[in-house]
Write a structure and sequence with these properties.
There is one protein chain. The chain is mainly beta. It is built from two helices and nine strands, in the order βαββββαββββ. β8 and β9 form a beta hairpin.
Length: 108
Amino acid sequence: MAIQLTESAARHVKSMLTHREGAIGLRLGTRKSGCTGFAYVVDYAQQVGEDDTLFESQGIKIVVDVESLPMLDGMTVDYVKANVLNEGFDFINPNIKDQCGCGESFSV
């Protein structure tokens, strides 16, 4: 089991963590949403709970809850800048079976 960050994503997260007092890393998860089932949830981790799995990639701690882990296992998170107004995380997830047309939700 593993979740990885690209160098670009790690740089972005490191920068953002300096502005978040008490944050220990990046929290990734899923929630039910959209027309195909699930959406990604990205937040800053304040702690690692009993039902969390901890990964480390590029020097960044990644915290994932037990329910989301099967849907995110093997995923790589990138951070892309298409232009000045369009930038954000890109999820390269080998578990996806279907994705909605707008790219906001997925199914596994």
